[in-house]
Amino acid sequence: MNQPLPTPCNTGSTIRQRGQHEVFCGLTSIIWLHRKIPDAFFLVVGSRTCAHLIQSAAGVMIFSEPRFATAIMDERDLAGMADMHDELDEVVEKLLERRPEIRMLVLVGSCPSEVIKFDLGRAAERLNARYASRPRVLCYSGSGIETTFTQGEDNFLAALVRGLPGDIRSGRPAQLVVAGSLADVVEDQMARLLADLGIEDVVFLPGRSSDVLAPIGPQTRYVLAQPYLGATAAALESAGARRIDGIFPLGEEGTTAWLQAIATTFGVSASRFEAVTAAPRRRAREATAHYRPWIEGKRIFLFPDSQMEPSLARYLNRELDAEIIEVGSPYLHREHVAGELAMLPPGVSISEGQDVEVQIDRCRAARPDLIVCGMGLANPFEAQGLVTKWSIEFAFTPIQGYEQAGDLAELFARPLMRQGLLSGAASPSRRVAS
Amino acid sequence: MKLTMWTYEGPPHVGAMRIAASMTGVHYVLHAPQGDTYADLLFTMIERRQSRPPVTYTTFQARDLAGSTADVFKTACRDAVDRFQPEALLVGASCTAELLQDDPGGLAKTLDVDVPVVALELPSYQKKEAWGAAETFYRLVRHFAGGVSRPSEIAPNSCNILGPTALGFRNRDDVVEIRRLLEEHGLDVRVVAPLGASPADLARLPDAAFNIVLYPEIADVTARWLKKTHGMPFLSTVPIGVQATRAFLAEARAMAGLPAMVDASNEQERSTWYAKSVDSNYLTNKRVFIFGDATHAIAAARIASRELGFKVCGLGTYMREFARDVREAAEQYGIEALITDDHLDVEQAIIAARPELVLGTQMERHIAKRMRVPCAVISAPVHVQDFPARYSPQMGFEGANVIFDAWVHPLMMGLEEHLLQMFRDDFEFNDGAAASHLHETGTAKAPVDAAPIIMPDAVDQPVGWTVEAEKELKKIPFFVRGKARRNTELFAAGKGIQPITVETLYDAKAHFAR
């Protein structure tokens, strides 16, 4: 079941596991996507389970009325007593009556709709024709048999790129596409830095409104801001764009390397790069230093969740001096994370996929100081006296870029600080300012 | 196909998980894709349990569909039995696996695992969570208590408690409260199931004289089956509220062959006196809208109406299985029950009913919040905050005390209603003054006129007010001004009056005073 696979990097073999996976499915990325693009609405075509999943995982009960919903298939649909396409059209009509402000309607495929091969592409085409693209209708699959957590965003962005309507291709082509949703505050910081570096016509994908996307062509370069965007990268490349290779913008080192890769591509001078990044680099190092005493020397185990784990591990190890026991990832895009894996210290265990029970055994045996894991596992670990960090926070908290480097460090430090507070233990190796 | 933004109930396999997680020695192998593993967090994060629910998901993937998902299931089954060594194995499929038609029950039987296997058929596209829980409990009881024979000598005061589950609304504390009450009255509680029971305990169910059904949604089917099969009578008065608790105890004593109570008073019980006390006067005929599971909704209506002196202006449930009971209850209050699982219908009904208090689930809490109507949660589905650290039962006399506090506190602004009437010109109580606990920053603006509390749909366009009428409206204390504005506008719209004058304002006041 768990066979080692050879990898090109220096981190030893990868543990590949089949067995129970304890990772959210791609539907859950709707939770941040709907906030990122306020004029879009996500309609899951699925089962009661899908509706319950999004409700529970999102804690959506905090919103009065979210910009996502589920078209729950029932027995009539499956028994062929009703034409599912007619049924879907009715649901969409009802939805648009209620929410006429929707400018982009996204049909999201789920496990059951994939298994019965319900053709959402055809439905989207039909609805686009019917509503004359007002709203524009897109579709992608967020099903758990094909995607994990963040891969839902990947499929959505790929659909956005592929769904670029021909008529807006007439505008000025993008020089640089930054792909992968970032918190608005991070996006603004990145946009300022890129502008200061003299890079023009930068487009963020996804944009904050559904209709802003400049044409992409052979002159376009793209850079990934998130490591989980295999399908998006393929879609961008098939539109002619070329990837700028780099590690991901987590921490001072990651952000600098990421910007440097862009700067090099666009021929930004070393002096300009230095001038633009010197101050934020200093701030990032300063902010991170506050938390290093809590984390340095600590042994950390990362369960698979968002595919950001290799980048998080690299940051933990190189900027906070943590010891990494295992880096789990639901999937490794070997090309996109090659840089990250190469920077991990030799001998770190890397696992792809999981058999959660076996992984829990490994984790318990290692007695780490901090476990980064999903919500289903965290409290049971805490109950055993192990300290955990919910991995979902890395998907929801702004952590990319210089100004967030300290926040990222704090996410890891907080459970350890809390443990210190509650157990009455003294502060870490050095006294921490405030 | 049905459009839904919120759902009151999960799928039936989540109901089955609730039973598995309630019990000891049971493990559930669920044929399901990886997305379905989210359900774990209902127990670990929402209920804050210390252990994962005893469920192994097969988490099959797309690439498995080309091969044999049945083999994936069999491997998961074997591994789960080896690892967890349960006393009983539940097997079933979630909605996606149901489409694959792998037949988990049949497959598990071929495995020759040395553990009793209970196969679940939970039609995901027809049924929902509570049904799934009830069905799972029934299947388990049938399996373990089906073949056993009832002893010939049974102590008449022995009973079982059926129905409490993991994720149930305050079930954990209800069981403690009810068990204590029963034992104080000389009853011998043998098995509580499913919460805390093992398969062996289920086999002991027929050893008691009778059953007590605390939550009919979960245990009704099982209790009926035990009656039919083993001749066990059951009691299904739900002891929520003082009067129902008294009735419950009287029935339990009668069933146990104990003499009737001479004095039914309980010194811990305070809610009756609190409700009678003079400062509860303001509660008189407060309009309350109730929606939830059938047990809690029906009980809430009874307490609201008979024990607190509220006026029930809406009553409903999302559980179609119990529609008849809720309809019957609603008739007693002269209203029509709302039976729907569409929260938008509930929202419409709340708007139309113009309540002053909403008692509902987390969904109604948010509807009420949006409408700025006080609200208390009385039923699942619930939020992490509905698993409080403190002891907080809903059942028994202590439960009635808890309910009094939980429902009356959101209305506390109302408690000040009559006091503020008396002190309306006081500098501290005018609407420009800050809250009294913020006296140091006296210039801070109080949240003035949070109205309109409810914008009724009937009012298609905003109704204009004359300057004088607006001035007069301002003389009404701010905390009831929203209601006055709303009522006046509703009245004006109904009569086609435009604009609203001082006259209209007082006409409306007279009209609504009734």
From TrEMBL, chain A:
Keywords: 4Fe-4S, ATP-binding, Bacteriochlorophyll biosynthesis, Chlorophyll biosynthesis, Iron, Iron-sulfur, Metal-binding, Nucleotide-binding, Oxidoreductase, Photosynthesis. It comes from the Bacteria. Pfam families: Oxidored_nitro. One of its GO terms (molecular function) is oxidoreductase activity, acting on iron-sulfur proteins as donors. InterPro entries: LIPOR_BchN/ChlN (IPR050293), Nase/OxRdtase_comp1 (IPR000510), Protochl_reductN (IPR005970). Component of the dark-operative protochlorophyllide reductase (DPOR) that uses Mg-ATP and reduced ferredoxin to reduce ring D of protochlorophyllide (Pchlide) to form chlorophyllide a (Chlide). This reaction is light-independent. The NB-protein (BchN-BchB) is the catalytic component of the complex. Belongs to the BchN/ChlN family. This is Light-independent protochlorophyllide reductase subunit N.
TrEMBL record, chain B:
Substrate binds at residues 414-415. Residues 12-411 form the Nitrogenase/oxidoreductase component domain. The active site is at 279 (proton donor). Its cofactor is [4Fe-4S] cluster. Residues 465-509 form the Light-independent protochlorophyllide reductase subunit B-like C-terminal domain. Keywords: 4Fe-4S, ATP-binding, Bacteriochlorophyll biosynthesis, Chlorophyll biosynthesis, Iron, Iron-sulfur, Metal-binding, Nucleotide-binding, Oxidoreductase, Photosynthesis. PANTHER family: LIGHT-INDEPENDENT PROTOCHLOROPHYLLIDE REDUCTASE SUBUNIT B (PTHR33712). Belongs to the ChlB/BchB/BchZ family. This is Light-independent protochlorophyllide reductase subunit B. It comes from Rhizobium glycinendophyticum. The lineage of its organism: Bacteria, Pseudomonadati, Pseudomonadota, Alphaproteobacteria, Hyphomicrobiales.
